[in-house]
Amino acid sequence: MKRPGHAKRPTQFVSQCLHPPCHSPGFFFFFPCQLLGDCIGSGQFGSVYRALDMSTGEIVAVKRIVVEDGKLEQEMMKEVDILRGMSCPFIVRYIGFVQDDTYMNIVLEYVENGSLQSTVKAFGKLPEKLVAAYTFKILKGLAYLHEHDVVHCDLKAANILTTKTGDIKLTDFGVSMNLKIKKQSQSQGTPVGTPNWMAPEVIEMKGACTKSDIWSLACTVIELLTGKPPYANLIAMSVLYHIVEDDMPPLPSNISNPLDAFLRRCFQKDPNQRPTAEALLSDPWLASHAAGEILPRIAQPLQNNLNGIQPPPSPTLSSLTIATSTNNTVRKKKKKMKKKRERKRKGEAVNR
Fold first, then answer.
1. What is the pLDDT of residue 343?
2. pLDDT at residue 5, as a whole number
């Protein structure tokens, strides 16, 4: 019988790595033993676990998928092929891939603070200045992907991880597409992504492109500002209809003019009219907030609260509290001494 609060014992796995190091064809090696811990999230194809690398002591994330059929295995290998070619501080780092008879496991960098979605759930709507800072970092990651002909295809706050210092890491490339094999991906004939963040050309099955990520980025900006993506009150089919038929998704009220202009640039129905990720890095909205410089300064207090770290008390309030406490103590002592002297005088009067 399990004791109350008793955690499930971690499970250990050792499997053969299917990808050779140094691109040596036909060379196989065993990936270091991993000790699986608690489940920290789930994606489109499986669950993500925190794990301990038993040879280095490094904490890693393991995306684990039950092998069911060849098609699913093909999708997972596509994600691995994309990630293993990436080397960017704004994209989650690929460590390795291991497989046994039951599971496929993608071993990734562990990003300690969870997703931007969890940050929004913890703190609610984020201020525009902080959203600008996050957007700048997201665009850095997108610019790298697009430079390498990769479309993320499912950009949203849940797929953007944050570090304790306020940096971001794009993750979850299960439905991402390499434009070099675009024809093969299009043959599936199914829109990929999450409805509220989908670009119109994806819904109409005209094919995803790098500009599709720009539309999703604008939806993510609205998500961070308001706590919800566009059309959050509608069912999925209605969302898809409105994205295609409306001129653009409804914009939040009380946003600055530069942000309004930024969103309108991203929400062009014609993908060819949308700016590139690289061009958006110099957008006036981001420049007005000096977005590349402010993130660590703004994000750290938020992340401290997320980790349960309380800020130090205000010096003025602290001083006032100490002074008040001291004054109360002094008054009590004076009152006690006064009563003692009165009792002493009464005793002397009786003795006389």
1. 75
2. 46
Distance CA 78, CA 178 (A): 9
Give the separation between CA 72 and CA 105, rounded to whole angstroms.
Answer: 13
Whether 165 maps to a domain, the answer reads yes
DSSP 8-state assignment for residue 276: P
Spatial contact of 27 and 21, defined as CB atoms under 8 Å apart: yes
Angle, helices 116-123 vs 210-226, to 10°: value is 20
Residues involved in catalysis: 154
Taking a C-beta distance cutoff of 8 angstroms, is the pair 47, 79 a contact? no
User: Cα dist. 51→42, 72, 222, 325, 345 in Å?
Assistant: 15, 23, 34, 49, 76
- Among 284, 306, 328, identify where a domain stops: 306
Claim to verify: residue 32 and residue 102 sit in the same structural domain: yes
* 340 marked as binding residue: no
The whole-number pLDDT of residue 33 equals 62
Structure tokens at 325: 């406490």
Q: What is the pLDDT of residue 74?
A: 72
Q: Which residues of the chain have pLDDT under 50?
A: 1-7, 9, 12-32, 183-188, 298, 311-325
Q: What was the pLDDT predicted at 342?
A: 76
> Which pTM does this prediction carry?
0.73
Angle at 189 between CA 186 and CA 194, to 5 degrees: 95
Tokens at 228, concatenated: 């919800």
Residues 121, 85, single domain; the answer is no
- Determine the structural domain holding residue 166 and report its residue range: 116-306
Q: Residue 231 has what pLDDT?
A: 98
**Which of 256, 229, 228, 199 has the alpha carbon at shortest distance from 124?**
228
Number of domains observed in the structure of the chain: 2
The pLDDT score that the predictor gives to residue 250 is: 97
